Amino acid sequence: MQALQWAQASGDRELEAYVHLALVTVHTAKGELQTARQHLAGLRLLGVNPHVEHLRDLRTAALAIQAGQGTSDVAAELATLGTTFEVGGRMREAAWTWLQAAEASLALAQPQAAEQALSRAVDARHAMHSGASLVPELRSLPRLLALLEDLPVDHYATALQADLRQAQVRPMRVHLQTLGTSVILVDGQPVALDYTRGMEILTFLLRRPRASAEDVITALFDQDPKRSRNYFHQVRYDLAEKIQGLTISASPKRTYEVKGDGVQLTWDVQMMAVALAERTEVGVHRALDLYAGPFLPRAEGEWVQGEREDMAWKLIQVGLELMEDWSRTQQYEKCVTLAGRLLEVDPFDESVNAFMIRAVHELGEHPARQAAVARLRRRFEAEMGELPPALLALQREPTSLN
Length: 402
What we know:
The protein is α+β, with helices and mostly antiparallel strands. The chain contains 20 helices and seven strands. The radius of gyration is 28 Å and the shape is elongated.
């Protein structure tokens, strides 16, 4: 209820509507039908947008089914609503609706209609590449659960059985890939957000938890503050819809942070930071394995650029520290290998290039020397059209370097 009170105090009618929807769903699943009806009544007064109205209709039908009032009209309304969600590309909501339609048909002793609705739900599940977001809905449908338990092993809907089993074994895995790309993976499958800057907002709040909406807007946006604030909240709603359990939650003090309820969240940037913190050969190479390219490469703005520079700088600094240690013990092959990988992060970092040239020189006529010089030459010729003086000297007369 605290979330509802805060939403009402904020004056954000859309936020209030989504809180009501969440509470209707929870209380219906618990069998607390009177409380669920109260939230539906509050929802009807808001009239926010067509999508919220469609979700309200879904939850009204689900409440009727739970109360033993799942008539043929309710089943028909759910079928129409499921098609509406499908046409709008909202496959998660479509799957929820078809599951409820199957439950209604089973209550009406219409097994053929239930089978058709179940098939449509599984179609939507496969369109999402994951059924994790359907598990809470399934658990609230006793007749459908009983049907799933008795299905033959080759039935189309056994995918839902697997989703239920998997949910009992472990939480849903969500991984953010932001180095060299921008992808959210849910149980290994990509899930796209509707808003192009959604990942930027998500990662900003992972970097700076408990930031205010003003902090987000100031750091990431340079347009009208009112439009930016609306965009921020639309991203929040979109994330909650696409990945159940992963939310940008608001506190009573109107600060925001990323929370995962029943979600195992990993992020390549955090994994890279952990690897670098080891300050070991294995750690730095693991960090470089994770570094598939610049942070959020398609994003622009000062915050993203600052993050990119900071990540590259930390990689190179740890690498330079290790190479200094190795050079004191004459482990020049290790230096050449690591310097070559660091130059993939920043091909023109002066310190790494100098270290590479010094280490290669120390190897003398070792085969690694020729390979390293050839790599450096190709990189500089491709990017700059010419070789730096030190590399020219190394290439012409290796023994002349000090």
